[in-house]
Design a protein that fits this description.
- It is a single chain.
- By secondary structure, the chain is of the alpha/beta class.
- Among the domains are: about 140 residues, Leucine Dehydrogenase, chain A, domain 1 (Rossmann fold, 3-Layer(aba) Sandwich), CATH 3.40.50.10860; about 150 residues, NAD(P)-binding Rossmann-like Domain (Rossmann fold), CATH 3.40.50.
- It has a 7-stranded mixed β-sheet with strand order 9-8-7-6-10-11-12. It has a 5-stranded mixed β-sheet with strand order 1-2-4-3-5.
Length: about 425
């Protein structure tokens, strides 16, 4: 019976896994069944067809989604993901994660997510722009400054958000606050681009202070070297930590003496892969990277990379979730049994949506902060939330994930009751 249950849990979709985390936290927090039923499903799910005439004359028909999970605490907020695997189930899971993340961080937002099932690396700049504009117009009737504010995610960036904002504005008038993660010249906030990566470092510093860790010379492994992973690596390198392993879609590398992070960044910014960099390293298989002995493992690529199949080989002292849902429930339970703390995505990578909140507020006020203020506000808010979650962990003797979800669910539940939904 145990083996059958383990197999079933291991085969959960991302949506099922996130719902399980929420259900367990709701039970632990003693939420009323009526409230739990409201929080268990999405408020609105939209599926759109996005056709594109390609440069070679062929027709691409992409499928797009926008899921608005819960808006009790404010307008919906969530990224746009361009990836072949960004189907409705994944987008639904990510929308729910955003509900819990914004509540945990005490931001005045609900949770949403968007996805377009396409590989952006296979599109020309003209094709990507045309597809983005059509996608934006298809969703424009449910978006808005006080309704639903998209942001960049996997496969999207500031340029994509600029096109998206412009297409939305063509229908509703110039609306910089309708999206976040924009270029600075179009109302983006100085500090927003590195905010997710820097936020992970601020959380790690708070953990280190709480438990007496010395981050100088700490051995760190970063899976993924996109926006989040590259900023984590350069910020930790500046603090004196040793980044011993990194990876991207082209490969993984290891150097026990520490990798030359600056050279890795230069290579990637020039359009290369980390494995193209002129640095000293040993090549690894992607799976090997996750099992390196290290002080801190930061999965910062796609979800569900630490699973039942490899969790027993994980040798990190701490896991900091840079990606959304990188640890499956089965693996999470094993890590808890082994005493390896996991700082969950809804806490660890909250710097991105917190930075988006700062950008949104600045757009509404038409007043831009200096980056020093942005970073100071980001550090203060994330440190405060980390301490709140850690107090809960120590008080209830539970995992960081359980504590984070419990606090988030209680906040959303209060808003649901105050607004008269139940």
């Amino acid at each position: 019976m145990v083996d059958v249950l383990a197999d079933r849990v291991a085969e959960m979709t991302a949506d099922e896994a996130v719902r399980q985390y929420a259900e367990e936290a709701a039970e632990a927090a003693g939420l009323a069944p009526d409230v739990s039923r409201v929080l268990d499903s999405s408020y609105r799910e939209i599926t759109v067809q996005v056709p594109l005439r390609r440069d070679d004359g062929s027709l691409l028909v992409a499928h797009g989604y926008r899921v608005q999970h819960n808006g009790a605490r404010g307008p919906y907020k969530g990224g746009l993901r361009y990836h072949p695997d960004a189907d409705l189930s994944e987008v639904r899971a990510l929308a729910a994660l955003m509900t819990w993340k914004t509540a945990l961080l005490d931001l005045p937002f609900g949770g949403a997510k968007g996805g377009l099932q396409v590989d952006p690396t296979e599109l020309s700049a003209r094709e990507l722009q045309a597809l983005t504009r059509r996608f934006a117009v298809s969703l424009s009737h449910v978006l808005g400054v006080y309704r639903d504010i998209p942001a960049p995610d996997v496969g999207t960036n500031a340029q994509v958000m600029a096109w998206f904002m412009d297409a939305y504005s063509s229908r509703h008038g110039y609306s910089p606050a309708a999206v976040t993660g924009k270029p600075i010249d179009l109302g983006g906030a100085p500090g927003r681009e590195p905010a997710t990566g820097r936020g992970l470092v601020y959380i790690l510093e708070a953990f280190a202070r709480r438990y007496g860790w010395d981050l100088e010379e700490a051995r760190v492994v970063v899976q993924g070297f996109g926006n989040v992973g590259s900023w984590v690596a350069r910020e930790l390198d500046a603090l004196g930590a040793r980044v011993v392993g990194v990876s991207d879609v082209k490969g993984a590398m290891f150097n026990d003496g520490g990798l030359d992070v600056a050279e890795l960044v230069r290579t990637v910014e020039a359009g290369g892969s980390v494995v193209d960099a002129d640095v000293s390293y040993v090549s690894l298989a992607q799976d090997e990277l996750l099992t390196l002995e290290c002080d801190v493992l930061i999965p910062a690529a796609l979800g569900q990379c630490i699973t039942k199949a490899n969790v027993d080989r994980v040798r990190a002292a701490l896991i900091l979730e840079g990606a959304n849902h990188p640890v499956t429930p089965q693996a999470d339970a094993v890590l808890a049994e082994r005493g390896i703390p996991v700082i969950p995505d809804i806490l660890a990578n909250g710097g991105g949506v917190t930075g988006s909140y700062f950008e949104w507020a600045q757009n509404i006020q038409q007043f831009t902060w200096a980056e020093t203020r942005f970073n100071a506000e980001l550090r203060e808010r994330l440190t405060r939330v980390f301490d709140e979650v850690t107090d809960y962990v120590e008080r209830h003797l539970c995992t960081y994930r359980r504590a984070s979800y419990a606090i988030a669910l209680e906040r959303v539940a209060r808003a649901v009751r105050l607004r008269g939904y139940v």
